[in-house]
Structure formats: structure tokens, C-alpha cells
Amino acid sequence: MEKQKILIVDDSEMNRDLLIDILEDQYDIVETDNGAEAVALLSQQRTDFSLLLLDIMMPEMDGFEVLAYINKYHWNNTFAVIMISADDSPVNIKRAYDLGAFDYISRPFDSTIVQRRISNTMFLYARQQRLEKIIAEQFHEQEKNNKLMISILSHIVEFRNGESGLHILHVNTITKYLLKQLVRRTDQYPLSKADISLISTASALHDIGKISISDAILNKPGRLTEEEFEVMKTHSMVGANMLLDLPIEQQEVPLVKVASEICRWHHERYDGNGYPDGLKGEEIPIAAQVVALADVYDALTSERCYKKAYSHEVAMKMILEGQCGAFNPTLLLCLQEIADTLQSELMDNSSGQETKNIYDRLFSYEKYTFLSRKQRHLQLLYIDSLTSVYNRRYYDEHFQSTDDIQAMVVIDVDNFKHINDNYGHDIGDIVLQSIAQTVLSCVRKTDAVIRYGGDEFVIIFFSIPADIFEKKLERIRYSIDSLIIDDHPELHMSVSIGGAYGIGTTKKLFKVTDNMMYQSKNTKNQVSICFLKENEDSTDNI
Q1: Surface-to-core class of residue 249, CB atoms within 10 Å of its CB (0-12 exposed, 13-18 middle, 19+ buried)
Q2: Threshold 0.70, pTM exceeds
Q3: Which domains occur in the chain, in start order?
Q4: What is the pLDDT of residue 308?
């Protein structure tokens, strides 16, 4: 059986030797003589260690500084820390525990006490980690079910309303972008990543009250009469009341509270001329303000039974000129700042082209019908079961002989082994699913996203301008960098991206792209692009 590994950090060689004599028969020992060296070692190999024995008084970085660093970056999620010191004052002991230490051992060392306390620490720490994993899995399952039910309910509304099934997705996306930009622009709304995720999820229920509106009004192809509009306006109150009629313990759930606010007030306007309550300014919860703006933008740029879609430019002009009511001036600035993103992400004008999108190419079907047997077979044959993007087989059969690819991208997940080792393969799977869906949300319908293998993805682009290509890769990198896993908000995800731009064969572009990806991995969370000259061999650009 492989020994557990312990890192001893102490500037005294004598103290290190004493501990090694006590522990080396039971454990694999690594030693360093200062805090800075320990941090450097842990930054690369922290998953290898089960325990850190950390002295307080050391040069360069003392033990408390090392412990604070470990706590800041959640490294103590992977190993336990025991402080060792001749100073056993209550102040020092309290500070050590406050910074995340598991135990405190005073010098001079008693071999029996050291062995017993280390074995107990490892046992209790392992048990704690197992319990936390079980709780996290249960929480994740609950959250997954919540989101599934929200998705079902929101699609029921769209089924009745005859709207595009993309409306919910678009409102979610716009809401997320607006909130992130809002946090960057001002500290007036101190929203965490978890808050942004919560509001974005809750936005899916903004029109749930429309389920109470008759089809004759809901899907009327022309302008509503005054009486019909008054009926339509009731959907905001109906939606809020549906959520407020839940059992009291469910009403207190943050998702339900935020969703009810959004339902009730997403038609309020900043000048007080909205409905149903005529709220004004900051009386309107920020979640409802953001969803209101997202809803209006997507309504303008989408085709409905009663109107054609407006262009992005026209929609922006109408909103900024106040033709759709008054909005928070700061939010309008945020909308302008993310305008290019919205235009490229949501207003894809190439829908008439042959699509290689996973849903549009293989499984496009008329609304409300089921997949055919042939489509189900294609799904099993060409779709990765975990991430729901194309699989390697699809890549090999459809792209290996292609010679008109405009651009190609290879994406590799940074530190994925660390994620699997420290959070478990279940969380690793969730990370891959989250990244795959994020990539899908950042590309066009005409682009193909492929899980090439393990934690590596490939994107194939056709007919894309160079500047848009660059923006999309940066958007992918940024979006993944901003991702949060609901039950593990401390888990940070990033990717290394390599791109090759220039028409060529699959083999040629992949060779260049793969090399660019490895360039990015030198620093991680980077995008590296090689722009190929016409008729230029790929090796000239590596």
C-alpha cells in the first residue's frame, strides 16, 4: 500500500530531523526550510500531499502567511494543516485555527503524541471530506432537479406562447452578461458569482404567469385592444402569486424569492411608468431591472407572431431613445458596452446556411414532434453522451477530408486532473458539461463543437471574419473563466485555447492549432492564434 505523503515546513534542520525520525516508517516525507519554498511546491504538487506540518517562525514567509495563502486559494480542501511551534500561547493557537489549521502541536515533540495526533487528523480529515462530498452531491442533484423543473415550466410557457425556444436561453444569456458588466462598472450592486448565477437561472421563470392567458390574446397576430392588453398585463402578478402560493418553507428558498420578484416586477420601468405596481428607480429590485432590459432586447430582435425581428442596431436605438420605456442609466451603459457581444452571440444572420450545429443539423424537427428513429440512431452514433456535443467519431467521419475549413480551435481544460483528484469524477463530469455548454453558447449555429477526447474540445468554423474569430475565442476563454459550479463556488475553471485561421485541410489546421494550444498551456487561461497566409504551409507559422 502506498504511503501517505507529508510535507514538513520548518527552518530548523534539527526539528525537521526529529519529525522525520518519528514519522518516516509510516509516511512518505518531503521537507522544505521556508514558507516561500513550500508555497511554490504546493502550487505544483499539492494534490500529492495528505498533510502539511507547518512551523510558525520562518524566514521569507512565516507559517501564518503560508496558512493565509493556503486558506485564500482553498488549498486546504485537498490536505490538512497542523501548526508546529514552541509558542503555545492562546493567541497563536486561536489565530492558527481561524486561518484554517486542523490542529496545533507544541514543541518539544513527544513521539507518541505526534504520531497519534497526526493519525487522528488524517482520519478525521478524510471523514470530513467524504461527508462534504456526499452533501455536495446531494445538493448538486437537488439543484439539477430545480433547474430541470424551471426549464420544463419555461418551455411550457413558450409552447403556449408560440415564441422561439431560444427566448429563455437568450434572456438568461443577456441577463448574465448585463450582471457581470454591472459588477465591473460599479460597486453599487455587490453581486457575487453565486448571485449572478441565481438571478440568471431565475430569469427563466419571468413569463410563467402567461400560462393563465388565453390563446386568443397570447398568440394574437395583430395589436392588442386596450382590454386585451389589460388582461395580458396580469401575467406578472399571476406568475408572482404562483410562486408565493408555494408552501412557506419553499417561499424562503432564494431561487423562489428572486424568481417571484422577477415575475412581478420585470415590466416596471425606472421612471415609474411600468406595471403592476408603478415602482420607480431603485424601488425595483436589481434582478427585475436586469431581466426587464434583457426581455425587451430579445423581444425586439426576435420574430413574433405579431411582428418581424428588428436588427440589433434598430433595437439598440429604440431602447436608448426610450421607445420601450425608461431603464436604469447604468444598465443602459452596460448594454452599450456588451452590444458587440450580443450582436455576435444572439443575432446570427447565417441561419439560412447549412448548419453543423448539434441540434440544428442532426436533430432539427418541427415544434412539438419527437425525434425519428433515424435521428435517434444518429444521436447515439455522433453525439458525446456526457457533454451533448459532437464526438470524435463525428469529427473523423465528417471533417477529416474537408478542405474548406475557415478556422479551427483546440481547447484544453487547465488542471483537469487536479479537479478529478480533489473533487471527484462526478464533479469533473459537471465541469466538462458546463464548459461544453458554455462553448456552444459562444459559437454560431454554423460552427461545430466536438469533444475530441477526455478534456479536449475542437471547434470547426466556416465563413467567419478574422476579427469575429478572435472575439469569439476571447469570449469563450472569459466565459469559462467566469463559470461557477453551484455547489463548489471555490472551484475555478479555465482553459488553454489554440486557434488557426486560414482556409486549409483539417490535418493542416489541426497541426497548427494543437501547437498553439500548447503555447497557451505554458501560462494557462490564454488564447494563442496563428493566422495562416494563403498557400502557406502550416509549419511556417509554428
Answers
A1: exposed
A2: no
A3: 5-129 (3.40.50.2300), 162-346 (1.10.3210.10), 358-541 (3.30.70.270)
A4: 83
